Amino acid sequence: MDYLNIGFVMRSGIMQVIVFSLIPFLCWLIKYKKQDNFFKWIGLYKPVKLVSNKKATIAMVIYFAVFILSYIISKEVSSNFENMGAVGIVPSLIVCFIQNGLSEEILFRGFIGKRLIAKFGKVSGILIQAVLFGFMHIALALAMNLPINISLMVSYFIIPTIAGWMLGYIDEKIYNGSIIPSIVLHGIVNFTRDLMLMF
Prior knowledge:
By secondary structure, the protein is an all-alpha fold. It contains 7 helices and no strands. The chain is globular.
């Protein structure tokens, strides 16, 4: 993939958002369109804090700190923008916020998470979607033929599972079910990881 071709990166990011939104959209169209509009149904609406500013800030700082620390400790952390320097900043922003943040949050915290929460309640729904998020990352590692070891399991399963749980918790318990906070946090953490590896 040509990560320095901004047009290509943008098209790739938009295509992933479309692909990750297609199944949720079709499901909504077939079964749920009379209940809510699509964007509200998947959580793409203005967030409203259900807790104090202090509690919301603490939750987001903990999320950010845990994952930046895990990236520093992990031996398996890599980036498509490794050692690129400043030339990688704009393409990384597109990948982190659109291709990863927006598309993955629509699918996992929006579509999958909200359906599981509706069926099993917030605690179980958030946990199950987080485990599925972890399995997606380990499946990607297997698709890249990475050797399975403890470090890989931590980096590609445990860390994403914890991230999925924390993002689900922040969306559902702090921001009235809006997935916008998790889109932003997901993008910020991934972009910070890329910045750490770019220079």
